[in-house]
Design brief:
Elements: H1 2-19, H2 25-39, E1 44-45, E2 64-72, E3 84-91, E4 94-102, H3 110-138, E5 149-154, H4 157-164, H5 176-187, E6 191-195, H6 212-222, E7 224-225, H7 247-253, E8 254-259, H8 266-274, E9 277-281, H9 288-303, E10 307-313, H10 333-351, E11 356-362, H11 371-379, E12 384-389, E13 406-411, H12 414-424, H13 448-464
Parallel strand pairs: 2-5, 5-6, 8-9, 8-10, 10-11
Antiparallel strand pairs: 1-7, 2-3, 3-4, 11-13, 12-13
Helix pairs in contact: 1-2, 3-5, 7-13, 8-13, 10-11, 12-13
Length: 465
C-alpha cells in the first residue's frame, strides 16, 4: 500500500510539472497516459470472464481454443504504413494470450492486412494447441492423440471468402503461401474460421484507438474489471491446517470489542458462553460520549493484561439497518447515506484502540469503492483480507439449502484472516438456496459458528501477531 501511494504521488508530481510548462501534443499524450495509469491502478483480470459476449460459444469443449483476429490497414506514417495485427486467444472463456504486433510488410489492401493477421493468429494457435494437447492428456482429460480444435473468428468477410475460394485472384498471388498454409489447416479440420461482426470483435482493442465507450466495453468482455473490494496482501492458495487455540488460551488473554447494530449479537452470546470479556456498541457510535466511554473500557481491559481485538461490522445498505445507530435515522436513502458517512468517519476512532482489529462487509458491495471505506482501511493498516462463505457457517434459506453469499474480513493480523479462511474460505456445496428463499436482512447477522471462529481468530492474532 505504501508503494501504491508513492506511485500515485509520482504520477501527480509529473502531471503538475507538465501543467507548469507550455502544452503540446506530447505533453497532453503523457498526461493522458498518467491519468489512465492512476485510474486503473487496481484493475484485475477475472479468469474465466463472466461476460456473455465471450461465452456465446457455449459448447464448453475442453479441447478447443477460441481466438479472435483483427487488423488495421496502413494506419500510421511513422511505421511506413505497415499494418497492425491483433489477436485475443481464449481457453474455456479465459484469456490466455493477447497480441498487438506490427506486420512485417506493407499490405496493398485491407483484405491483405486481415489475411496477415489471420495467419499470425492461426500460427500462434497451432503452437498453443500442441502444448494444450499434451497438457490435457497428462491430466487425463483427453485421449493421447485427440486433436485440439482452433475456432478462429475475424470481422473480414473478404479474407474469409478468399480462403474459401478454389482459385486465387490474380492480385492475391503474392500472398499465395500464406493462403495455401491456411487452406491446408482448414481442409484437415484443425482450423475453423467464422465471421464475427466488427463491434463484437475483442481483437479491436489491439489494432486501433477506440472511443472510450467501446474500449471499456471490450475490455470488460475480456474479464478486466475494477474490484468492488480493495486488493490486499493476503493470498491464500493452498489448504491450510486448522490451528484452533484451546478455550483455555482464549479465556486467558483476549477481549472482544464489537461495533455492530445488534445488542444481542451472536458474537456477544458466544463470548458469554466461552467466558470471554466482551464490550459492544450498538447505537450512537458517532457520538463523542460513546467513543469516550468505549476508550475507558479499552484502557481498563488493557490494564488488566488482556489483548483487545476491535471488530466493526458495517451496514451493507443506506437503509433500515442504520436505524439502530441513530435515534432519528429513517429508511430514506439520502438520509441513510449521510448517517453512514458519519459512522465511517468515526470508525477509525474505535479501531485504532485495539491491539488487533478487523472490519467486515459483504464481498460484492459497492461500499468497498467509497472513499470513506478506503480511508478506514488505509489509516488502520487493514492489509490482510479473506473471504468467508456463509454456507460454511450454517446459514440456510427457507428451502433448506445453504446460502451462497460471502463476506470479506479485513484485518491487521495475518493469523486472524488465515484462521477464518481455513474454516470458512472454501465452498463445498453442490447447490445453494435460490434468491427467493433467502432473507438478506438475516444474512447480515453472524451465526454462532462464525462468531466462535472470530473469537478463535482473535486469540490467534494475540498469540502470533
Amino acid at each position: 500500500m505504501a508503494q501504491t501511494r508513492h506511485d500515485i504521488k509520482l504520477y501527480l508530481s509529473l502531471i503538475g510539472s507538465l501543467q507548469s510548462k507550455p502544452t503540446c501534443g506530447a505533453d497532453n499524450a503523457l498526461k493522458s497516459v498518467l491519468r489512465f495509469l492512476f485510474s486503473d491502478r487496481h484493475l484485475l483480470l477475472r479468469l474465466p470472464s463472466g461476460s456473455e459476449d465471450l461465452t456465446k460459444d457455449s459448447s464448453g469443449l475442453v479441447n478447443r481454443i477460441h481466438i479472435w483476429s483483427d487488423a488495421s490497414h496502413a494506419p500510421y506514417r511513422f511505421n511506413a504504413r505497415k499494418g497492425i495485427s491483433g489477436e485475443v486467444m481464449c481457453y474455456q472463456n479465459a484469456v490466455i494470450r493477447t497480441v498487438a504486433k506490427q506486420q512485417q510488410a506493407v499490405s496493398l489492401s485491407s483484405c491483405e492486412s486481415e489475411l496477415f493477421a489471420i495467419q499470425l493468429a492461426a500460427q500462434d494457435s497451432v503452437g498453443m494447441s500442441k502444448f494444450l494437447q499434451r497438457f490435457l492428456f497428462g491430466m487425463g482429460a483427453i485421449e493421447e492423440f485427440s486433436p485440439v480444435d482452433i475456432w478462429l473468428e475475424s470481422d473480414s468477410m473478404s479474407a474469409i471468402q478468399l480462403l474459401g475460394g478454389v482459385d486465387l485472384p490474380r492480385k492475391s498471388r503474392h500472398v499465395e503461401i500464406r493462403i495455401l498454409w491456411l487452406k491446408s489447416k482448414l481442409e484437415d479440420g484443425s482450423l475453423k474460421i467464422h465471421h464475427r461482426y466488427g463491434e463484437g470483435n475483442c481483437a479491436d482493442l489491439f489494432t486501433k484507438c477506440l472511443p472510450t465507450k467501446d474500449f471499456l466495453r471490450l475490455r470488460a468482455v475480456l474479464g478486466f474489471e475494477n474490484p468492488e473490494r480493495p486488493i490486499s496482501s493476503l493470498v491464500l492458495l493452498a489448504e491450510e491446517s486448522l490451528a484452533v487455540s484451546s478455550l483455555k488460551e482464549v479465556r486467558g488473554g483476549v477481549a472482544i470489542f464489537e461495533v455492530c447494530c445488534s445488542e444481542q449479537s451472536n458474537l456477544r452470546m458466544m463470548c458469554e458462553e466461552l467466558d470471554v470479556v466482551y464490550v459492544g456498541v450498538s447505537a450512537n457510535m458517532q457520538e463523542d460520549r460513546v467513543l469516550k466511554a468505549f476508550s475507558q473500557h479499552v484502557q481498563h481491559v488493557k490494564s488488566a493484561g488482556l489483548w483487545v481485538h476491535v471488530h466493526i461490522s458495517t451496514p451493507c445498505t443506506f437503509g433500515s439497518p442504520l436505524r439502530h445507530f441513530h435515534d432519528d435515522a429513517d429508511d430514506n436513502n439520502s438520509k441513510g447515506g449521510e448517517i453512514w458517512r458519519e459512522i465511517m468517519t468515526h470508525a477509525t476512532g474505535y479501531l485504532k484502540q485495539g491491539n488487533s482489529k478487523s472490519f467486515e462487509l459483504p464481498t460484492h458491495n459497492s461500499i468497498w469503492k467509497k472513499e470513506e471505506t478506503k480511508t478506514v482501511i488505509d489509516e488502520n493498516k487493514l492489509n490482510h483480507e479473506c473471504a468467508i462463505f456463509l454456507c460454511q457457517t450454517g446459514v440456510q434459506g427457507t428451502d433448506g439449502n445453504p446460502v451462497g453469499k460471502s463476506l470479506t474480513f479485513c484485518s491487521t493480523s495475518f493469523s486472524f484472516c488465515k484462521h477464518l479462511h481455513g474454516r470458512f474460505g472454501r465452498c463445498r456445496c453442490a447447490v445453494h438456496s435460490g434468491m427467493s428463499s433467502i432473507s438478506y436482512h438475516q444474512t447480515g447477522f453472524y451465526t454462532k459458528k462464525l462468531a466462535k471462529g472470530i473469537i478463535h481468530a482473535a486469540a490467534l492474532a494475540m498469540k502470533r501477531g
